[in-house]
Model the fold of this input.
Amino acid sequence: MSGARAAVKAASDAGDFPEVLKSWQARMEVALAARLPASNVVPARLHEAMRYSVLGGGKRIRPALVFATARTLGLNESAVEAIACAIEFVHVYSLVHDDLPAMDDDDLRRGRPTCHKAFDEATAILTGDALQSLAFQLLACDPTLSGDAAVRLRLIELLGEASGTFGMAGGQAIDLAAQGRTLTIEEVEEMHARKTGALIRASVMMPASCLPGLEGRRYEALSQFVDPIGLAFQIQDDLLDVLGDVSTLGKAVGADSERAKPTHPAMLGVPASQERVRRLHQEALAALEIFGAAAAPLRQLAAWLLARSY
Done:
């Protein structure tokens, strides 16, 4: 199937996808709540802040990628639920820390005061620390995951890579150092590949790693799918910072421009950035051809992600 035909098919397939996404979001609220410490358990204020930050809404995009990959590979969603929770805990920890005055100094997240505004800075720092620890504890101990020690170790390795200096934390460091500087588009895309793309990549490759016998070319195809999707997702996010509004996004808009952040819209303009998203989408869809109809969940999610307005 050509890239253009695949894109049209993906857009058509995505017609009922919002309902599928809602079911995954509802599942995640239950799963996350069950794995978080109760707010009345000591230290109660920290546990309350963890639950406030995690259960305060959100699109649950990374868990959706976990579930869509599982469906594509014929895995039961219950077998990867703990993976989805671990990734979301790491994602939320990164948001809590990114919002701090020492980082992006944001007051609003998901339509509510950020964690350090609702509680205090020290509690917000500890909230992020505790969520990161809980993520790895789940991969080591959650009873719903595969009992195969080699699989669990691989999952821990993948999430560690995605979270560390060669992934999300490293991307944030590059982002902070780049503000006000002139970067090449290649440098911007390297930053995005770490800051945003690494955890998105883990959301596909971790469930794939639950199948040690997965054919190598299929594993590689998933890798070739998720890398362009991760970059396209970030460009779309940057476009929404230019074109969106606070009531829809639940966070401040125009912040990238105020901080002189190097983004695709700032460097290439809006039309060229939208075209880049379209081409990356086609590249991602082409990688899924090996899976045939089985990859419909990933095609649907990709189409929804890159057409979203929030």
Notes: The CA atoms of residues 172 and 195 lie 6 Å apart. The chain is about 70% helix and 0% strand. The first strand starts at residue 108 and ends at 109.
